[in-house]
Amino acid sequence: MRTLITNIAELVTNDQLVTNDEQAQDAVGQRLAGDSALGILCDAAVLLDGDRIAWVGEAASAPTDADEIVDAAGQAVIPGFVDSHTHLVFGGDRSAEFAARMSGQPYSAGGIQSTVEATRAASDDELRTRLASFVAELHAQGTTTFEVKTGYGLSVADEERLARLAGEVTDEVTFLGAHVVPPEFDNGMGSDGDSDDYVTLVCGAMLDACAPHARWIDVFCERGAFSTEQSRRVLEAGAERGLGVRVHGNQLGPGDGVQLAVELGAASVDHCTYLSDDDVSALAASDTVCTLLPGVEFSTKQPYPDAKRLVDAGATVALASDCNPGSSFTSSMALCIAIAVRDMGLTPAEALWASTAGGAAALRRDDVGRIVPGARADLVLLRAPSHVHLAYRPGVPLIERVWVAGRAI
């Protein structure tokens, strides 16, 4: 099936080589910092051939041999969102915890244990059904590529089944057995010995069970979770098994997560709420993506990270939802964009790039997050004339139509 989408007011390609800058400037009204990275084409069209993009250009020059023609009616088309950080396989509910935080109780990582209990008690079919509903929710909001982490099983059998179930819906599965220390390894006295025993399990039998289902390994390098040296053990064990490295770091306070991620060549270090000047410099000098998770700060009332500081320093920034039942129960990348623009210093263009091409970079992907020939045909038709409306009209459902691998959903 060859589908031509035409009469596009603003086509965001994330490819500077196809930008008609003068028209793009007129369409947006005033040039925004970072717009050039979006590769905006006005009065544009795009041809999908099966699951790939076959042609991109001005509508007047569009191919005429399409099987189907879709009239964008003067609206904008953007790449599908790439959500590089989610925790979608879980049981239970933590709305009471959210209400308590909104009443003034501080956030800590301890609430993860309640989700572990509920997840262990849920059947595969219950988890699979809930996961399918989240995938539908993501697609309806324009997310076409997404990562899913384990981390709510914390036993060999439960982590393996979470990785297996995640693999049914995405190729981007992350083994996060080192999320927190489960209660059966915690003597309640803060013993490093008990947590070291659990790290040994993560690096051994648990990794053996999960690695066949995963592409990535991750660790929560944070106080209350895993120390720097424990985190290093986990990540190096995963790398030895051929898994790519990701890190949860610098969320609850200053720490070594960013430096460890850069040292080990991690694809991404996520959260990065508390960064020193050395952390920012290290990120800017590396190819490790700094993935910011605005939904977490929104839900936990922590300070928002300064995304502008990172962009100005030359670091690669991604935005992701961190959809999970405790600290960020949203799957809306549009909400993340609006928050990043309003409270984190990004322009609308920078925020859109971070949630598409930036997310792709965090997953080491070059076939998604862009609308260029040869890329996977993941596109979103907005009910708006410009990408700016994603931040300009927060909370308004602007997703008109979504294509995943060339298929309209």
Automatic annotation (TrEMBL):
Its EC number is 3.5.2.7. Pathway: Amino-acid degradation; L-histidine degradation into L-glutamate; N-formimidoyl-L-glutamate from L-histidine: step 3/3. It is found in: Cytoplasm. It is an enzyme of class 3 (hydrolase). Zn(2+) binds at H85, H87, H248, D322. Residues 77-384 form the Amidohydrolase-related domain. Belongs to the metallo-dependent hydrolases superfamily. HutI family. This is Imidazolonepropionase. It comes from Paramicrobacterium chengjingii.
